[in-house]
Design brief:
Layout (H helix, E strand, L loop, with lengths): L6 E5 L5 E7 L18 H7 L21 H15 L5 H26 L9 E2 L5 H11 L5 E2 L7 H8 L9
Parallel strand pairs: 3-4
Antiparallel strand pairs: 1-2
Length: 173
C-alpha cells in the first residue's frame, strides 16, 4: 500500500488536489533530485517540509553524488499553491499533499486488514519502500496500530523479497 515518493501532485479540472497515480519514476524523478523532473512529487513535499534533511549524514546521499535541491522543490510547490487558490502557501500545499497520501494509505490499509478479518489496532505495521519510514508513524497512529516496524534497508525490501521467495503456484477452483 502506498503512494511512492515519485507520485506526482497536481490540481485537476475541478480544482481538487490529486496525488498519483502518475509518477515521476526514477528518471527524471522528483524535482529535488535534479534529474530533470518538473512536476511536484511526494518526495519534494518531504524535502520542502524538512522531513528529509538536505545532508542526512556526512557524505550526503549516494556518497555525495546526489544533492537535494530544496529551492527547486519549493518553486514547484509555490506553483502548486497558486493553483490551489489565493492565500495558499507552498508549505501548506506540501502539507496537503502529505495529508492526501496518508488518507489514501489509511483507507487502503483499513480495507486490506478488515477484508482479511484483522483489526488494524491489533496488527503491527511493517513499512517498506524508500519513504516507508517517513509515513509509518503517522499511518500507524491514525489507525491505532500498536507499533510500526521499519526494517533495515526498507527501500529494497520488496526487491529482496522477490529475489528470495520460493516459487509457488496457487490455484483455486
Amino acid at each position: 500500500i502506498g503512494c511512492g515518493g515519485g507520485s506526482i501532485a497536481r490540481v485537476d479540472e475541478g480544482s481538487v488536489l490529486r496525488v498519483g497515480p502518475e509518477s515521476a519514476g526514477a528518471d527524471p524523478g522528483p524535482i529535488a533530485f535534479g534529474g530533470g523532473g518538473t512536476l511536484p512529487t511526494v518526495t519534494d513535499a518531504y524535502v520542502v517540509l524538512g522531513r528529509v534533511p538536505l545532508e542526512p549524514h556526512p557524505g550526503g546521499f549516494l556518497g555525495g553524488e546526489l544533492r537535494l535541491d530544496r529551492d527547486a522543490a519549493l518553486w514547484a510547490y509555490e506553483a502548486l499553491a497558486k493553483e490551489l487558490g489565493a492565500g495558499v502557501t507552498a508549505i501548506e500545499a506540501a502539507q496537503a499533499v502529505l495529508a492526501s497520501v496518508r488518507a489514501s494509505m489509511r483507507r487502503a490499509l483499513g480495507v486490506m486488514t478488515m477484508q482479511r478479518g484483522r483489526d488494524p489496532r491489533a496488527t503491527p505495521l511493517v513499512a517498506f519502500g524508500g519513504g516507508g519510514g517517513l509515513a509509518a508513524f503517522d499511518l500507524a497512529s491514525a489507525l491505532g496500530m500498536p507499533l510500526a516496524l521499519v526494517p533495515p534497508m526498507p527501500g529494497v525490501l520488496s526487491a529482496y523479497g522477490m529475489t528470495t521467495a520460493r516459487r509457488t503456484a496457487d490455484r483455486s477452483r
